[in-house]
Amino acid sequence: MIEFRNVTKYYDNGVLALDDVSFKIEKGEFVFIVGATGMGKSTLLKLIYREELPTKGEVIVGGVNIAKLRPHQVALLRRRLGVVFQDFKLLPNKTVYENVAFALEVMGYSNREIRTRVGRVLDIVGLLHKSNCYPSELSGGEQQRTSIARALVNNPVILIADEPTGNLDMATSWEIMEYFRRINARGTTIVMATHNKEIVNTMRKRVISLYKGRIVKDEYNGSYE
Amino acid sequence: MRIYSIAFILREAWKGLTRARISTFAAIGIIAFMLVLLGLVFYTFSIVRSTFTGIGEQLEIILYLKDNLRVEDREILKNRISAMEGVKEVRYVSKDEAWKRFKESFKGNKFVLEIMGKNPLPDSFEIKVESPEYVEILANSITSLPGVRDIDVPLEIARRINNLIGWIEFGGIVVVGVFIVVSLFVISNVIRLSFVSRIKELEIMQLVGATVFFIKGPFIFEGILCGFLGGILGVIVFNILVFILKKYVLSTFPLFSGFTSCDVINLSLSLILFGMVVGGIGSVIFLERHLKR
Predict the structure, then answer these.
(1) Cβ–Cβ contacts within 10 Å for residue A110, how many?
(2) Which of A139, B81, B95, B212 is the most exposed place for a label (fewest CB within 10 A)?
(3) What is the four-CA torsion angle of A155, A161, A166, A170, rounded to 10 degrees?
């Protein structure tokens, strides 16, 4: 599903973010990317949804080399991915419903289809009753659930999450993880960057540890020390 | 292209515009202001220019014909002159008519008329030119024609007016050019800045897999719409100002009243079009800066 082959990434300012990274993630896996801030977690995720391109090596997502995609194909790739961020990235002037619907609108879906799909996905994250609220009227957990709904609304094969619990308290974080567990159980591959030790150690999933841009550990049923 | 796509772009552009953000209104206001300035500058120059051209058009070359010229030869000469470039009108004035006019203008002055005695005036052509720049060229080519006894050319005035028009045109092109560049800069930047609060929107659109068409469409359309509304507002203000100018200022100067002409309708349409184009350019600049490949 996702494969990194000797990927090295330098940013334009000369910073080395990833150093000869190779790994493979199969369909349906749940993988944590761990490491302290600045160790390359976000860069690794950005390469998957092609926000960045590798300086050296190859990144293969869904069988295609992301470096060879044209702008139009990049858009198509992203429709098969769902991305969730620490800061939610919701549009403040759109309601919960509109924020989720937005993702389908830009793909040119019909209004009827949008209504059904958004309703279904808001039901999954338990936010149907808050459809008409604006992000500012929601709690952090509810905002994150909205952004998860937006990530899921197009039935992505991969869900990418960059510190999704970074802004949330522990109880809410667990709530979010429960949604992730269920999403993963339906067959969606999940790649999540985090430095929340408790979550990683409790979930007992595959853990890839980064230190200064290199993979220092990659274990199934792993933990985060 | 599916109908939902077009609908989405129009809807998003409209939402963006009507979200009552101050920046949008400010942008429209500034666009209107720039277009009014541009319009007034253009208007002023074209009025000044048309005034002097108008004065120049009043200039006449008077061509005195040899006596005993046959009627056929006279007609041939008239046709030849009429066919020359820059000639607006050739009028034949017979010596009798000229004498009548002369007597008319010296009606009260018996002395002059007595001295003149019999009619000493020759037949002549009064030649009107299309614009003062032709006066000198025509004078040169007409003098040598057969049957011409003498010509009377307002050469000095024609030269001065030509000179003046030349300077006015040059100044007009420079000043209008500068204003066009300045408004281009201001309007495109105003549009760009009015979008800055929506960089996040741009980012999210890219993230959820919107194609370039979907991302750019609403922004460009909104930029054009903004330019259009600014243009409409500007043109309304501009026309009111022109109306006031015509009614209360220009009409008090007799010099201007006769010849002032400026195609205000075309100028207005051009201003609106300019607003729309530059609004679109502003959007494109914004997108180029903030849209990652």
Answers:
(1) 13
(2) A139
(3) 60
> For B275, phi and psi rounded to 5 degrees?
-60, -45
Across the interface, do B207 and A49 touch by the CB < 8 Å criterion?
yes
pTM: 0.73
Q: Is B30 in contact with B191 (CB distance < 8 Å)?
A: no
Number of Cβ within 10 Å of residue B114's Cβ equals 8
pLDDT digits (tens, 9 = 90+) for A94-136: 899 999 999 998 888 888 999 999 999 999 899 999 999 999 9
Phi, psi of B148 (to 5 degrees): -90, 125
Please, is B173 exposed, middle or buried when counting C-beta atoms within 10 Å of its C-beta (0-12, 13-18, 19+)?
Answer: exposed
Residue whose entry in the numeric block shows the structure tokens 């500012």:
A136
Within 8 A by CB and 6+ apart from B129, the residues are B56, B57, B59, B60, B61, B86, B87, B88, B135, B138
Q: How far apart are CA B195 and CA B214, in angstroms?
A: 16
Alpha-carbon separation of residue B231 from A181, B127, B202, B272, B280 (angstroms): 55, 45, 27, 4, 13
For residues A42 and A192, give the distance between their C-alpha atoms in angstroms, rounded to a whole number.
10
Q: Name the residue facing B201 among A76, A79, A91 (closest C-beta).
A: A91
Name the 3-class secondary structure at A25.
strand
Tell me, what's the pLDDT at A27? 93
Is the Cβ pair B4, A108 closer than 8 Å?
yes
The pLDDT tens digits of the residues spanning B80-102 come to: 887 788 788 888 887 778 788 87
With b for 16 or more beta-carbon neighbours within 10 A and e for fewer, the B48-59 pattern comes to bbbbbbbbbbeb
Q: Which residue is listed with tokens 């092609």?
A: A50
Residue found by looking up tokens 């289809």 in the block: A113
What is the location of CATH 3.30.70.3040 in chain B? 60-153
At B20, is the pLDDT very low, low, confident or very high (cuts 50, 70, 90)? low
> Which residue among B4, B207, B293 places its CB closest to the CB of A78?
B207
pLDDT band at B189 (very low <50, low <70, confident <90, very high): confident
Residue A196, classed as helix, strand or coil, is coil
Among A79, A87, A105, the strongest candidate for a mutation testing the B interface, having the largest count of B CBs within 10 A, is A105
**Domains and their CATH numbers in chain A:** 2-80+156-219 (3.40.50.300)
Q: What interface predicted TM-score (ipTM) does this complex get?
A: 0.83
Pairing assessment for the beta strands A189-194 and A30-34 based on DSSP bridges: parallel
Indicate the class that CATH gives domain B60-153: alpha beta
What is the per-residue DSSP string for B37-61?
HHHHHHHHHHHHHHHHHHHHHT-EE
Tens of pLDDT, residue by residue over A151-165, are 999 889 999 999 999
From CA A28, how far away is CA B124, in angstroms rounded?
104
Residue A212: count other Cβ atoms within 10 Å of its Cβ: 14
pLDDT of residue B252: 67
Task: Give me the residue label for tokens 């009043």.
Answer: B58
In 3D space, the residue among A147, A38, A221, A187 whose CA is nearest the CA of residue B204 turns out to be A147
